[in-house]
Amino acid sequence: xxxxxxxxxxxxxxxxxxxxxxxxxxxxxxxxxxxxxxxxxxxxxxxxxxxxxxxxxxxxxxxxxxxxxxxxxxxxxxxxxxxxxxxxxxxxxxxxxxxxxxxxxxxxxxxxxxxxxxxxxxxxxxxxxxxxxxxxxxxxxxxxxxxxxxxxxxxxxxxxxxxxxxxxxxxxxxxxxxxxxxxxxxxxxxxxxxxxxxxxxxxxxxxxxxxxxxxxxxxxxxxxxxxxxxxxxxxxxxxxxxxxxxxxxxxxxxxxxxxxxxxxxxxxxxxxxxxxxxxxxxxxxxxxxxxxxxxxxxxxxxxxxxxxxxxxxxxxxxxxxxxxxxxxxxx
Length: 331
Ligand code: SF4
What we know:
Layout lengths: L5 E5 L4 H12 L3 E8 L6 H15 L4 E4 L2 H8 L12 H19 L3 E3 L13 H11 L5 E2 L11 H4 L17 H9 L17 H13 L5 H6 L4 E6 L2 E5 L3 H8 L5 E5 L7 E4 L5 H10 L8 E8 L2 E8 L15
Parallel strand pairs: 1-2, 1-4, 2-3, 4-5
Antiparallel strand pairs: 6-7, 7-9, 8-9, 8-10, 10-11
Bound molecules: iron/sulfur cluster (SF4).
């Protein structure tokens, strides 16, 4: 019996990539699903549980690839610019496609399959951008897009007779109606959201990342992960304070290593993280104190610890609106 040709599937956890896996499988390919986890995935855990249970049912094993600094630097200096927030979608897709190509070559696969839909994302999902992405990643003509391939120029995969073009759908635009209808026809019981969730498209988050890029010349991956947590205040170049918003964030902030911790001792209040010029530490302490429980003017004792130091700052609770001008997401 002839062995099935392999395709590498880039799966985000969203509905479109899941449908594409199903369609490519129905075309007779052996699918190797790959998920690329970036520091900017927002809902990956929830979506991946759905994806994982789907793949398990289909007998497919997910390859999860975690990318960090190399990807962050692409976000910082994209060749093709940003979308509506800090999302460098064309550069991001080139990066993802290069990873997929590497696995494709290693596995002896004939191409890759994606859930891209023409016109769904103005920046990266138009035919011109898709061509750039293919060319720059070395995947020209080797991408199967089952959802939109019917309205795109024929690929090498079609010319080589590996794909019947009549099986390619003609979905375009941002509406999800066609995909939801298709999901029902294919028997999908649970329907995931439209994508894996990318924080780079979310303006308040993008402001925090932009602030980090322009003020912290030597950012760490911990700095990047902490952008998902708490209120961030920029006090000066290289000086910032992060204030937890709830119990869970406080617990996460307590685990941070590269910061001085500011913890209220005599009342309920948030965990604060400070880094930067020592002359801003008392301002940072006042900001943390302003989020403590209790009336304005009460005395607050804060334990300052980190980098081998431990001491107290005594202050009084002031109105938190005084510090709004430092809040990064409001700038
Ligand atoms: S939305 Fe985010 S993950 Fe998706 S292509 Fe754009 S930058 Fe990449």
